[in-house]
Structure formats: C-alpha cells, structure tokens
C-alpha cells in the first residue's frame, strides 16, 4: 500500500508517517519509481506507535515495542525491554498521582481555611446568606 492508504487506514497523516520514518520507527519499501510502499506489518507498527503515544509514551519509549513486533511477536508489549518501559511508565504515573493527591489536599486545606476565615471576618455576609 502507498503512504496515503497507510495513513488513512492507520488514522494518521502522511506527514506523521514520514516523521516516524525519519525516527527509524517505520520502514517502507521503495518502488521502482521511488514511492514508499508499506506492507500490513507496517500498519500494525503504526497502530502500536499511535496507541502508545496516545497514552503518553514518547518516541524513545515506543522503540522497544516496535522492535518486539518486528521480531515476530503478536504484541509489542511481550518482550523484556517493553515490559521495562511499561514498569517505568507505571511508576511515573503513580508518582504523578501521588503528587496530584498532595496538591488536592493542599487546595482542600486552603479552601477550608479560606471559608472559615471568611466567616470569621465577614459576619454580615454570613447573615445575609441565610
């Protein structure tokens, strides 16, 4: 299939496919007239790349998954290097969630303090609100 068909089937643009190619993630064949020609395996690779990028992986993170698919595996996440990336990414997400929890607690405490302080210093507003 040509680059336009691959882009359409993968739900991306030809520009994006060229970008992936420039980073060594997608490997087209070249026809006699120089056109990029892709097989079904490249469609699987592009779909894997897009799904990983959609959940926050970077291009360097994607490489082990692509290599795993190219090695003949049915999934890009079954190889040891892919598992390492998944573990690292999960640890990053857990850390981020912990930091978000800390921020949420700080905001909640600040709001609680602000409401209590407002009620102490603005008795007329409290009475008019009733």
From TrEMBL:
GO MF term set: DNA binding; DNA-binding transcription factor activity
CDD domains: HTH_MerR-like_sg3
Domain of life of the organism encoding this protein: Bacteria
PROSITE patterns xrefs: HTH_MERR_2 (PS50937)
Entries under InterPro entries matching the protein: DNA-bd_dom_put_sf (IPR009061), MerR-type_HTH_dom (IPR000551), MerR_fam (IPR047057)
Keyword list, A-Z: DNA-binding, Transcription, Transcription regulation
Stored Pfam families: MerR_1 (PF13411)
Keyword Nucleotide-binding carried by entry: no
Domain HTH merR-type as annotated: residue spans: 1-68
Protein name in the entry: MerR family transcriptional regulator
Source species of the chain: Micromonospora profundi
